[in-house]
Design brief:
Elements lengths: L2 H19 L10 E4 L12 H10 L4 E3 L6 H6 L3 E4 L17 H17 L4 E4 L9 H22 L2 E5 L21 H11 L4 E6 H7 L3 H7 L4 E6 L16 H10 L5 E4 L9 H12 L2
Parallel strand pairs: 1-2, 1-8, 2-3, 4-5, 5-6, 6-7, 7-8
Helix pairs in contact: 1-2, 4-5, 5-6, 8-9
Length: 290
């Protein structure tokens, strides 16, 4: 075994053992927090099983965007899939592509069935890249698609969550999503209002909305009825929720809790260079525990 491989294996075993030996932290319960695999770093030595141990110990509810074959691992630790799969869309080709609506609907119905059968209450979707399309045409196309699928989602009790993403950092897919049509909260909310379904709502990514629109507290309050899920991430850089970034996440969390939000807030930050991912996750969860 190479020295680097040995050290990685040793580190993973050490973290896993430490997690097993520590009691579960009891949270206040006003904010239901989730994690993502990205919180552990791009080259984490931890298996998903060990990541679930960390999440369970910290009092988290589950993970976003975990593929269905791994859902049993979540349940092994009393966790849930806090956000289900996309249902046939990609960052490039999303709901605004009318020519793909038949294909997307077939795939999304299957994903809705899978979510409903496993008690997964939310699934993610995206508008897609504009490629010259106007915001008005994109909104019309998106509304047309949602009107096709909303009845099925309502019957199955699964909420389709359209994510707001920033298009400012169009040269870096880690920091932004190039050419995305749902790059302002107002556009996404207007689509939801036109569809007018309790099962078509917004995934409010706090990191992205801060970059594009700011005014986080007021935007959350004014559009609360259309929001089903939140993501976090430090601005700038999409790193830890610490003193190096501009969002006061404690205030944001209290705002959301005071509004009576019953959904999930999942962390999507990436650990910065030289940072201990586990400590960063612990800090983020503590900040949001209001």
């Amino acid at each position: 075994m190479q020295r680097r491989e040995f050290l990685s294996t040793f580190a993973a075993a050490g973290v896993a053992a430490a997690v097993q030996d520590q009691p579960k932290i009891q949270r206040k319960g006003r904010i239901k927090q989730g994690l993502m695999r990205t919180n552990f770093g791009a080259n984490s030595p931890l298996s998903f099983d060990d990541q679930c141990k960390v999440a369970a110990r910290l009092g988290c509810y589950g993970f976003d965007l975990i593929n269905p074959p791994d859902w049993p691992i979540l349940r092994k630790y009393g966790l849930v899939p806090t956000m289900g799969p996309t249902g046939g869309v990609t960052i490039q080709d999303g709901l605004i592509r009318r020519e793909l609506h038949d294909q997307i609907e077939k795939s999304m119905r299957a994903s809705i069935d899978q979510c409903a059968a496993n008690g997964v209450r939310n699934m993610i979707t995206v508008g897609g890249q504009r490629r010259g399309m106007s915001y008005a045409e994109g909104a019309d196309n998106c509304v047309a698609y949602f009107n096709r699928i909303k009845g099925y989602a309502e019957d199955k009790g699964v909420t389709i969550c359209m994510e707001v993403m920033n298009s400012k950092y169009d040269s870096n897919n880690t920091l932004g999503r190039p050419d995305q049509i749902c790059d302002h909260l107002a556009w996404g909310v207007e689509v939801c209002k036109r569809v007018n379904s309790p099962r078509v709502k917004i995934l409010f990514d706090i990191y992205h909305v801060q970059i594009m629109d700011g005014n986080l507290v007021q935007n959350i309050k004014e559009n609360f009825q259309w929001i089903a899920h939140f993501h976090t991430g430090g601005v700038p850089g999409r790193n830890e929720l610490d003193e190096t970034q501009e969002i006061n996440y404690r205030v944001v969390a209290k705002t959301i809790a005071d509004l009576g939000f019953t959904g999930y807030i999942s962390h999507e930050f990436r650990p910065g260079p030289g940072k201990d991912p586990i400590k960063s996750i612990e800090q983020a969860v503590e900040i949001m525990d209001v």
